[in-house]
Design a protein that fits this description.
One of its GO terms (cellular component) is membrane. It is a multi-pass membrane protein. GO terms for molecular function: ABC-type transporter activity. This protein is α/β, with parallel strands linked by helices. The protein folds into two domains: about 25-175, abc type-2 transporter like fold (3-Layer(aba) Sandwich); about 190-405, no CATH class. The protein has helices at about 1-15, 20-25, 40-50, 65-75, 85-95, 110-145, 150-170, 190-205, 215-225, 230-260, 275-280, 280-300, 305-325, 335-345, 345-360, 375-405; strands at about 30-35, 60-65, 80-85, 105, 265-270, 270. Strands 2-1-3-4 form a four-stranded mixed sheet, sandwiched between helices. Strands 5-6 form a two-stranded antiparallel sheet. The longest helix has about 35 residues, at about 110-145.
Length: about 400
């Protein structure tokens, strides 16, 4: 069962990393432009946006002759949106006014990101183009009124135009940009290498449910009568259960390493894509396996009946994994649900592995506990130890009740 679950989780991870939605993150958004661009300043602004501005790394401008052609491209998915430049808008620009807005059309799923792109064009039209034209015309008029010859006026106007263009191109230097990745600085492969590895460890404890079947209260009472009370029984059984789970993990990792050595699993600089932490450090695995083993042990000790054990464990595992961000990034959830997810055992384990990854990248900048997105590594270890102790003590309490009945 562990091998089957490992293969299933690996297949899920492969499908996510190679999905079209993931590949789309590295594609530029295509924005269509329909209508006349006879205005020299407007044409210059569009060309700057297309060729020299930082937006060119995420925006690809496509020109269309008529709106029907642009509408067909939008419906076929060839462009994310298209902008309609009307005669009224051109007249407004030529009159040095910005009272007419650009019209744009987009699909409902792309409206958010394309809205940002349209704002870029709108800023160029309403701010850069209009303000630049006003400045150039005022300079020309003042020089002409001062009696300068046409040659000198043209030279000064051209020099001011170059200053405007230089300011437009250099605007990307006004701020420092950093790529946040999918969640808190982790790329998509890094994020899902952690979440799916933890999900595998969680399901692996579910595969060991046979360890808890066929036991009877009379057996517990007989062993207790021989001097082994509830506490010693739980510790002995938990230690055996933990070693079984750890052996299964090491078995899977052994095959993973062999696949890496044979280049069957793709690598970057000799490491599995996403820098799978579970393969790099067995000590990290032990802490998580102890936590998940204690969680499973407590659930299976509390719940009676084969069907009930299956249902309770499956529902709890899926629910906690979902809230903790194993399937969707935690940033997708509301603040209250996100804080709840990070404080569940599954969330603490996730925060611990995330912290190890960020520490290896020297980007761990917060030690906030129980609130927000970050939890320090010592804080995670403390919370994992507390959860493990609570689950074991809870199991001891339940076993004691079974012995006394």
């Amino acid at each position: 069962m562990t091998v089957v679950v490992g293969l299933a989780v690996s297949a899920i991870g492969y499908a996510i990393v190679n999905s079209e939605s993931y590949k789309d993150q590295y594609m530029r958004y295509k924005l269509g432009i329909v209508g006349s661009t006879d205005s020299n300043m407007l044409t210059m602004g569009v060309n700057l946006l297309k060729n020299d501005d930082d937006s060119r790394f995420m925006l690809d401008i496509v020109r269309f002759d008529d709106e029907d052609e642009a509408r067909a491209a939008l419906r076929n998915g060839k462009v994310s949106a298209y902008v309609l430049i009307t005669d009224e808008f051109l007249n407004s620009v030529n009159a040095l006014s910005d009272d007419i807005s650009l019209e744009y059309f987009a699909t409902s799923g792309q409206r958010g990101i394309t809205g940002v792109m349209i704002d870029e064009l709108a800023d160029i039209a309403s701010e850069l183009v209009v303000s630049s034209e006003k400045g150039l015309l005022v300079l020309e008029e003042d020089l002409r009124n001062a009696g300068f010859p046409s040659e000198a006026i043209n030279a000064q106007v051209d020099q001011l135009l170059l200053l405007y263009v230089g300011a437009m191109i250099a605007r990307g230097n006004m701020a420092e940009f950093s790529e946040l990745g999918l969640a808190n600085g982790l790329t998509t492969p890094e994020y899902y290498s952690i979440s799916l590895s933890l999900f595998f460890l969680l399901l692996m404890s579910f595969c060991s449910i046979s360890f808890f079947l066929g036991k009877k209260k009379a057996t517990y009472q007989f062993i207790s009568a021989k001097g082994l009370g509830a506490g010693r029984q739980i510790l002995a059984e938990f230690f055996a259960y933990f070693l079984m789970n750890l052996f299964c993990v090491e078995l899977i990792l052994f095959f993973v390493r062999k696949l890496v050595e044979r280049n069957i699993i793709p690598t970057q600089n000799g490491e599995i894509i996403g820098d799978a932490i579970l393969v790099k450090s067995e000590f990290n695995i032990i802490l998580v396996v102890i936590l998940f083993s204690a969680l499973a042990f407590f659930i299976f000790e509390v719940v009676t009946g084969v069907i009930n054990k299956f249902l309770a464990a499956f529902i709890l595992y899926i629910g906690m994994a979902y809230i903790s961000g194993y399937f969707y990034p935690k940033s997708f959830f509301p603040d209250g649900l996100r804080i709840l997810g990070i404080n569940l055992p599954t969330g603490v384990a996730f925060a611990y592995m995330e912290g190890l990854k960020r520490e290896s990248l020297s980007t761990l900048s917060s030690s906030k506990m129980l609130v927000g997105e970050y939890v320090s590594i010592p804080g995670c270890i403390f919370m994992m130890a507390n959860y493990t102790l609570i689950f074991i003590l809870g199991s001891v309490f339940i076993r004691g009740r079974k012995i006394r009945k």
